[in-house]
Design goal:
Blueprint (H helix, E strand, L loop, with lengths): L2 H22 L4 E5 L51 E3 L3 H10 L11 E4 L2 H14 L2 H6 L3 H9 L1 H5 L6 H5 E6 L2 E7 L8 E3 L5 H18 L3 E6 L3 H9 L3 E13 L14 E4 L6 H16 L6 H7 L10 E5 L5 E10 L4 E9 L8 H15 L4 E6 L7 H6 L4 E10 L3
Parallel strand pairs: 12-13
Antiparallel strand pairs: 1-2, 3-4, 4-5, 5-6, 7-14, 8-13, 8-14, 9-10, 10-11, 11-12
């Protein structure tokens, strides 16, 4: 018998054995290598708050030690790989999961898995750059969002936990090439699987591993999926996930065809960080404006200073409005990836005492103009579902399109 025929027979035997094991409720075997720390608890601080009005960053919240620990780019991410083969029973839910995926899951595929480290950070950034604009349009992840994940609030709250980024950002390789990246943006239940294109096989493989990682952590597992990405919805249905409530919108703006900027209210000025020497003083005003806008307490200055260490940070995209007295009363921060033209704006906020003066619109329009000058082509803003506060502003900015996202949950037995 030829080697090819021998391999085919072996595959058939393995398949029959697997089906019999499932039918009998016996433990299933997984080849995946897991990376996890069940005790991890980053404290809930995150870099990109997809649930906040105007999609603003989350200020560090008070803890028993007085707040999220100061976190800046000088903190190093330890090269951690929590490895080892995992064998064990998936239980009834695991067996159902394997059966449901029989039509779409290629069980012979095996991607290697590793943690994000300082050594691989540059390579992962390059992965996000080449994955866009697909990753933004399909998944809401432009390069700027990943940079915020690594350099914004998470860098502050996890300063004393050097393995945090390795636990919550996983790299999946096909040979030496990165094929997918999974990010738990705030270290909680919500995960995102980023691929450079519509890669059903890779998403299936990564999803199967995330289910087991979250099962062992004792955490839930939720994804946010756009209504425009039917291929992802099909995968989640086959894997046993259920669709829940609408979580928000993603607004797309064509920077080449935007309405003329609105005039700034009399006595107010719009400026950027470009050329500002004492940025800490401006950041204190921005932090206060944000806290008043969202009713939150805490010092946002450490996170704002940390963002400056992001190698793609552009001071001209941090835009703020000043009152006649010199107080920061509106703010937004943008990102731009000149390689692919994809930009983002997050957060957007206006002090409650100065709303309905067009100041939020003024700072975003200035940010759009500066993004276009830096070779940006399309800009994106996330929001809560309409008619949440902020959505009226985003409509008035002249979006090219708007997608609707909903939550998809895996229910552990």
């Amino acid at each position: 018998m030829s080697a090819i025929h021998q391999g085919a027979v072996a595959d058939c035997v393995c398949l029959v054995a697997a089906v019999m094991a499932i039918a009998l409720g016996l433990p299933a075997y997984s080849k995946a290598k897991w990376g996890r720390d069940p005790a991890a608890d980053p404290g809930g601080c995150r870099g990109r708050d997809r649930t906040a009005e105007h999609e603003a960053f989350r200020l560090p919240q008070p803890t028993s030690s007085g707040g999220c620990p100061s976190r800046d780019i000088t903190s190093q991410v330890t090269s951690t790989h929590f490895g080892g083969e995992h064998r064990g029973s998936h239980g009834a839910a695991g067996n159902r999961f394997l059966v449901n995926w029989s039509a779409t899951y290629d069980s012979r595929m095996e991607l290697s898995e590793e943690s994000l480290t300082d050594d691989t950070l540059e390579e992962v950034v390059a992965f996000f750059r080449r994955s866009n604009p697909f990753a933004q349009k399909a998944l809401g992840w432009d390069t700027g969002r990943f940079m915020d994940f690594r350099w914004a609030n998470n860098a502050v709250s996890a300063a004393d936990d050097p393995g945090w980024f390795g636990r919550y950002c996983r790299i999946f390789r096909d040979g030496g090439e990165i094929r997918a990246v999974a990010v738990a943006e705030d270290g909680g239940d919500a995960e995102f699987i980023i691929t450079p294109g519509e890669d059903r096989v890779a998403v299936n493989e990564v999803l199967s591993r995330l289910i087991e990682i979250h099962r062992e952590r004792g955490a839930g597992l939720v994804f946010e999926v756009s209504d425009a990405e039917q291929w992802l919805r099909d995968i989640f249905v086959a894997a046993g996930l259920t669709e829940g409530e609408i979580t928000g919108h993603e607004w797309e703006y064509d920077l080449a065809s935007l309405p003329a900027p609105a005039p700034v209210a009399e006595g107010f000025t719009v400026a950027t960080l470009d050329g500002v020497v004492d940025r800490a003083a401006v950041y204190a005003g921005i932090s206060d404006c944000f806290g008043k806008a969202f009713g939150r307490e805490g010092d946002g200055v450490p996170a704002l200073l940390s963002v400056e260490q992001n190698p793609m940070f552009r001071p001209e995209l941090s835009v703020f409005a000043l009152s006649p007295e010199g107080t920061v009363v509106a703010y937004c921060r943008g990102t731009v990836d000149s390689d692919n033209g994809v930009c983002g704006v997050d957060p957007v906020c206006t002090h409650p005492d100065f709303q309905r003066l067009g100041l939020g619109k003024a700072v975003v329009q200035r940010c759009f103009a500066n993004q276009r000058a830096l070779d940006g082509r399309f800009s994106y803003i996330g929001s809560l579902p309409e008619p949440a506060p902020g959505t009226f502003l985003y409509r008035s900015l002249g979006p090219k399109s708007r997608t609707v996202s909903s939550a998809w949950t895996y229910h552990f037995a």
